[in-house]
Design goal:
Helices cover 45% and strands 9% of the residues. With 183 residues, it is of the alpha+beta class. The chain is elongated.
Length: 183
């Protein structure tokens, strides 16, 4: 979608026939109830946006503090303050991000950006901001949103900490080289 109207790409097919509106996708006059509903949704979102951004930022920072406080070799990617409220991007030294993602099946995390999630290459954005290749491929992206709770953040932090520790122990037992600052 582009804005709030269909883009015409993909397999959009008309549900009804009889007019050429919206590039042939919809007959008849404009969807007045839909337009009014969209306007009201935008108005409500505008009223809650600042408060919700502060709440989600606090949850994001709580998740970061919990993980970084319990593990060595955790690096925050991006600016520490000027960042999206619902996005936390961390690198875990000595662990491929994909190994962590696969081990965290009960969490919705990603080892790359949404636009490059189908590739195993390090994020070009992380590389552009100076993240070393070995840390760029050791990255996990956490998304938080309007319905994320403190309990979920605490659960996610516990799961990440125990999983990172377990994967690092397995790597040590297998004789894989980890940097000395990893626990």
């Amino acid at each position: 979608m582009r804005g709030a109207s269909p883009s015409g790409r993909g397999s959009n097919r008309p549900l009804f026939h009889g007019g050429g509106h919206e590039g042939g996708l919809r007959p008849g006059t404009p969807n007045v109830p839909g337009a009014v509903g969209l306007g009201e949704a935008l108005r409500l979102a505008g009223l809650e946006m600042d408060r919700e951004a502060q709440r989600v930022t606090a949850l994001r920072d709580r998740l970061h503090r919990s993980i970084a406080g319990a593990l060595d070799g955790v690096f925050l990617n991006g600016h520490p303050e000027r960042r999206l409220p619902g996005n936390l991007n961390l690198s875990f030294d000595g662990l491929p991000g994909e190994a962590l993602v696969v081990s965290l099946k009960d969490l919705a995390v990603s080892s790359g950006s949404a636009c490059t999630s189908a590739t195993v290459e390090p994020s070009y954005v992380l590389r552009a901001i100076g993240v070393e290749i070995d840390l760029a491929v050791a990255t996990v992206r956490f998304g938080l949103g309007r319905f994320t709770t403190e309990e979920e953040v605490d659960y996610a932090a516990r799961r990440v900490i125990e999983t990172v520790r377990g994967l690092r122990e397995m790597a040590k037992a297998a004789g894989l080289h980890l940097r000395p600052d990893n626990r």
